[in-house]
């Protein structure tokens, strides 16, 4: 019909789909699922880094880390606002998160064990996120694309700060260098898993690419990320923990070792190091805050103020 | 600057310690907007602290290398976060004071005037934020009213210290108490809360922070804050 | 002694870290008898830790001077106290293991035999204490049953690490798993509790403590434990 | 009557009154009040010292401190058992403590701000307690007297350990010495207040002395304590914070400065530095443990086991 044709044409011509435009139900559902997962990842992702706010070893680093965690909360706000353009509110999505019915990025189920992990998250995890997200700035759904433009700008700032943190450690004392290397050892493989399963096992990819919600395959993005990281690791003076990593002249790209997908599946199934801690902490914050939200609602009802 | 150093240290410690406490909220706030707001306030305070401590010496040596009794912050800011109402009450008491103080400082010509002039706008936001929440909690539900009143009552005896004289400050702190009380009374009144009747200080508990006497909770806070820095003496970060 | 050093360090760290956790209960126990009992167990463990660490080096340098990744304790012992049920479940799992291990060690002739022979009696008391409470909580009220089952389930994946091989130990740790499981199963059964069906380890979370990989909570525990010592380098106490 | 006469004779002859003996109601009430206050002081007194268990700067000191705090819990147990001989159970007394209707020693409303406070409490607070308590070993009520014998033995052990801790600090680094001096400065005057108000203002003293529950007046004991401490402070190399403190040749005792009784009254009224923290912590431990005690009771009911 005409609506479907207009939608298809808009996608084909790279015109943005906007909230009031007609869109297929499956397109809407896919977007909501992906944006919710992204929003949840931002707010769960505050935890591993906030773990070091109180212990940051210099005031400058403490300020940078606080600003970063604050940005993540802000990203969560943009993204929940973007889902609202599709008629799905934040409260509903949070309930699903707390009930374990919606996911967040598995990477946040790994622990931050040392200060260097803050750097490794910035360099590798934010780096991987950016590699995933930059194409989303051209995503077919307007509000999501615009949110991603702002988010990517801030993420790339975080990524540089993480890199610089690691550089300071790598060039610091022997203990600091070892701390940095240890962090990279622990975060490298989980970061590669952030791009999702190999292309031949990826469930939603083909339809998402047709809809221009997704623009590149998992393996393409993963390769791009590896090729970016290798020279950066050299400058850092840190070793990526993969004996099979080497330049492949013929492909014009780096070969890398096999990823342990069984670990990925375990973390997805809830058996990662911190799955329980993360979701319990989130639920606790929400439950402990219930009386505050109720007070704000009651006050607004009495005084006609928009809720806080 | 030298003349202002004791005041810069005390006010810097106030800002640093409160920033540290507020930083504990990150990821734990009752609503996402408050994760943003509380961290934002913490960042402003941390910025103030860095400017003030740098007037006295190396900011990191001062923050991470001093023992408890060398800190000069008022005890109010080191009180544990407690529930959201306690955090808001602490913030209200402190921010109203800080806005009055920085306004006065900004009008003077001491070494602290530039910092105060710059910070007074952010402090006005902190005060506004605390006021709004005081209203919502005080005049919200029965539970929130009870919690907010408990918080105000419990922290009241830590407020008198804010007005004790401070070396190196060209502001009459005692003179700020009347306008402070007037503003706090107005907000509490609008929030349907009682102004506490108890003493606003006790000679040994609250009121000695400026001389380096703190509360038991402060030692644990510093242990967490300083441990990593102390574990790597001489390292750069 | 040198051959046994890696084992002495690991077992010493187990005892030290669990003593530190139990020490957090002092003054907070559900009944005064448990203030006595938990502190008593903590003291026994601290005594074991001192003997074991002294076989390796200076006990205080080891306890207060190492970074997190240099500790070799199993992750089980560093888990936060949680509620009383979690503390009891942790203690049951650990004490049953320790009693089996020390009994085996005491029968051998390694450098750890004398410590094990001396400690085995106190460990039997720890195990008995944990068993009695497991029974009371498991077969007490509906609430206590639920809490105790949650505790057992939640800590189960930290138990497999107890049976991983340890350099310098002339005991087949893997061989202790069967008797351990038998005893734990018997106690849980009497307590009307289910033996958890989940994995008793996960490759990255629980099972890496012996290689120096710990959990987020451990860093905060060490910060508190080490801060004062690190704040006064070289001082004697 | 005959019972009264037998009681009076026993007191006069320093024979112990035992639980089954007849005793005046006021004697019983005074004993219960005093023993309960003493028991409460032991359990509240665990808090300021337990505050440093997790932070003790050496393993040896950690073990000593743990053992001491454990002893305090044990003293609480003896003393609550002793009140039970007078028909008043622990639960009832704890309820009164938690409701603020019975007191504990005001000294525990001061904070332990540094490690040296652990030493100062041992030396001064335990020292004052022993000075108060040694005469109680000859108290007319048997179970109380016997509990005090055991308690005093352990307390004097604690007192020596506290002294030795301070000595190590005083002879340590400049920072350690300063820490020790600061602790003594803060604990000296509150310790002197532990003997209670001056004799002419002491409400219960005369009757208690007649009953041989009390054997010396507040001021006598206070003087004894001062005379013990002055030479010990000299050996420690620490100064007692009283410019009026000096040997009085004619009295054969030390003169000392005026005590600020207004502070004492304030702390008694609940306005000390830690009154709220201490009682809140105690209540929280009790409330958080309610389900545990209920479970033990339920289990005992099912299985006929004596309650834990």
What does this structure look like?
The complex is a heterotetramer, with 2 copies of chain A (308 residues) and 2 copies of chain B (237 residues). By secondary structure, chain A is mainly α. Helices cover 66% and strands 2% of the residues of chain A. Chain A has 13 helices and 2 strands; from the N terminus they run ααααααααααββααα. Chain A has helices spanning 2-12, 25-44, 46-50, 59-84, 90-98, 115-133, 142-170, 174-193, 205-210, 218-236, 261-271, 275-288, 290-303; strands spanning 246-248, 253-255. Chain A has a two-stranded antiparallel sheet with strand order 1-2. In chain A, strand 1 and strand 2 form a beta hairpin. In chain A, helix 4 runs antiparallel to helix 7 and helix 6 packs antiparallel against helix 10 (218-236). The model of chain A has no long low-confidence stretch (mean pLDDT 93). Chain B is an all-alpha fold and 237 residues long. The longest helix of chain B is centred in the middle third of the chain and has 26 residues, at 113-138. Chain B is globular, with a radius of gyration of 17 Å. The model of chain B has no long low-confidence stretch (mean pLDDT 95). Chains A and B meet through helix 3, helix 4, helix 7, helix 12 and helix 13 of A and helix 1, helix 2, helix 3, helix 6 and helix 7 of B.
Précis, in short:
The complex is a heterotetramer, with two copies of chain A (308 residues) and two copies of chain B (237 residues). Chain A is mainly alpha-helical.
């Amino acid at each position: 019909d005409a609506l479907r044709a207009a939608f298809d044409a808009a996608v084909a011509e790279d015109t943005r789909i906007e909230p009031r435009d007609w869109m297929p139900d499956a397109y809407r559902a896919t977007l909501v699922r992906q944006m919710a997962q992204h929003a949840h990842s931002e707010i769960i992702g505050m935890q591993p880094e906030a773990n070091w706010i109180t212990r940051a070893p210099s005031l400058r680093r403490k300020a940078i880390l606080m600003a970063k965690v604050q940005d993540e909360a802000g990203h969560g706000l943009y993204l929940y606002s973007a889902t609202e353009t599709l008629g799905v509110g934040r409260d509903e999505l949070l309930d699903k998160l707390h009930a374990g019915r919606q996911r967040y990025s598995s990477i946040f189920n790994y622990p931050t064990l040392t200060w260097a992990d803050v750097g490794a998250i910035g360099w590798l995890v934010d780096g991987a996120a950016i590699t995933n997200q930059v194409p989303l700035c051209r995503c077919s759904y307007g509000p999501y694309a615009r949110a991603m433009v702002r988010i990517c700008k801030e993420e790339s700032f975080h990524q540089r700060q993480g890199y610089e943190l690691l550089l300071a450690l790598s060039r610091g004392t022997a203990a600091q260098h070892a701390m940095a290397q240890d962090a990279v050892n622990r975060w490298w493989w989980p970061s590669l898993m952030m791009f999702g399963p190999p292309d031949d096992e990826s469930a939603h990819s083909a339809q998402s690419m047709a809809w221009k919600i997704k623009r590149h395959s998992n393996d393409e993005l993963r390769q791009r990320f590896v090729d970016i990281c290798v020279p950066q690791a050299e400058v850092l003076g840190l070793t990526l923990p993969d004996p099979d990593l080497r330049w492949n002249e013929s492909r014009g790209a780096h070969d890398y070792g096999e990823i342990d997908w069984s670990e990925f599946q375990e973390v997805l199934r809830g058996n990662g190091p911190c799955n329980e801690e993360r979701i319990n902490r989130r639920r606790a914050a929400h439950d402990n805050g219930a009386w505050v939200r109720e007070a704000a609602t009651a006050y607004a009802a009495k005084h006609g103020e928009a809720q806080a | 600057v030298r003349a202002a150093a004791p005041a810069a240290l005390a006010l810097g410690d106030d800002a640093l310690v409160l920033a540290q406490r507020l930083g504990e909220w990150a990821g734990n706030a009752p609503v996402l907007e408050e994760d943003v707001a509380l961290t934002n306030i913490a960042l402003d305070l941390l910025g103030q602290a860095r400017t003030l401590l740098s007037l006295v010496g190396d900011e990191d040596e001062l923050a991470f290398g001093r023992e408890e009794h060398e800190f000069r912050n008022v005890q109010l800011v080191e009180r544990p976060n407690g529930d959201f109402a306690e955090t808001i009450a602490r913030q209200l008491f402190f921010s109203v004071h800080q806005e009055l103080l920085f306004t006065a400082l900004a009008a003077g010509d001491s070494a602290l005037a530039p910092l105060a002039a710059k910070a007074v706008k952010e402090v006005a936001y902190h005060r506004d934020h605390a006021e709004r929440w005081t209203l919502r909690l005080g005049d919200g539900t029965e539970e929130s009213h009870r919690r907010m009143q408990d918080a105000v009552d419990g922290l009241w005896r830590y407020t008198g210290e804010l007005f004790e004289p401070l070396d190196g400050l060209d502001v009459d702190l005692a003179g700020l108490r009347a306008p402070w009380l007037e503003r706090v009374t107005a907000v509490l009144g609008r929030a349907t809360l009682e102004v506490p009747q108890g003493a606003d200080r006790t000679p040994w508990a609250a009121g000695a922070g400026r001389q380096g006497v703190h509360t038991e909770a402060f030692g644990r806070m510093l242990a967490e804050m300083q441990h990593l820095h102390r574990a790597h003496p001489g390292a750069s970060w």
